[in-house]
Amino acid sequence: MTNSNIQPVLKVTDLKKAYGAIQAVGGVSFEVRPGEIFGVIGPNGSGKTTLFNSMLGQITPDTGKIELNGQDVTQLGPLELNRLGVGRTFQTLQVFGKMTVRDNLIVAAQEHQGTMFSRMFAPNDSNLGDKADALIDQFHIRHVADKKAGELSYGQQKLVDIAMAFMSEPDLVLLDEPCAGVNPSLVGGISTLLKDLNKTRRSDGKASSFVVIEHNMDFVMDLCHRIMVMVEGKVMAIGTPAEIRANKQVLDAYLGS
User: I need a surface site. Which of 72, 101, 200, 219 has the fewest CB within 10 A?
Assistant: First the structure.
């Protein structure tokens, strides 16, 4: 991940987004390398959510450029980005409560399985059952696989939500506060799970890259290879967890030490 000649999975260049007189994102640039877990932290109002929503195609930046594997995707919407290999989780759960856990995972990947016509005549599981079962085992939720997602605990639903983001074997997964609302006893388990997923090779032999927004500093410092600190819509620092911990400017402005 230190080779500067490797094409980044995600490249954001001079991204800006304003709402009236408020500059929510003011010229943000960074890269996410293949197989990297990249964290984004900052106080409330620092522009993290606006940046995230721009990368997901939910809002269009005023200026700047977003590239996915070298392709300009700045103007693309969420569905187009998903089909190009971008998975995501939300702060609020996006599971289908009346469907089983296994069916939730299958539905999450069906849009990637050929045309609508071909899916009409595919088996009930769209040939995704084996992949769903593999993730169910990796996420240690086999004991609830046939239960309706709405019957599970919040923590279990969170695991299902994360698993759904990986069903399509994405190049890039955007994780929006994966620990939000989760019992502290489960936070370490989510960290371990994401590390294992980062090491897992997809069917093409590559590993997914992650971008993680999270307020739990211990979680971010333990999980991420590099971290970007945002303050007032701008990048204050990018570095390894050790470099961020040692950055006096970050400590004074954000971490409060």
Answer: 72
The verdict on 58 and 179 lying in the same domain is yes
Least Cα distance to 82 among 157, 160, 173, 161 occurs for: 173
Same domain, 175 and 256: yes
Residue 112 has pLDDT above 90, yes or no: no
Task: Say if residues 39 and 228 touch (Cβ distance below 8 Å).
Answer: yes
Which residue range is the domain that position 111 belongs to? 95-169
14-25 residue pLDDT tens: 999 999 999 999
- Which residue, 169, 185, 206, sits at the end of a domain? 169
Chain centroid to CA 58: 14
Name the nearest CA neighbour of 176 among 63, 75, 50: 50
Tokens of 3: 């080779």
Taking the C-alpha atoms of residue 48 and residue 41, their distance in angstroms, rounded to an integer, is: 7
Q: Are residues 251 and 174 in the same domain?
A: yes
Structure tokens at 53: 């929503």
What's the pLDDT tens digit per position in 28-75? Answer: 999 999 999 999 999 888 999 999 999 999 999 999 999 999 999 999
The 3-state secondary structure of 124-177, one letter per residue: CCCCCHHHHHHHHHHCCCHHHCCCEHHHCCHHHHHHHHHHHHHCCCCCEEEEEC
| This prediction's pTM | 0.88
- Are residues 255 and 201 located together in one domain of the fold? yes
What does the alpha-carbon distance between residue 139 and residue 117 come to, in Å, rounded to a whole number? 32
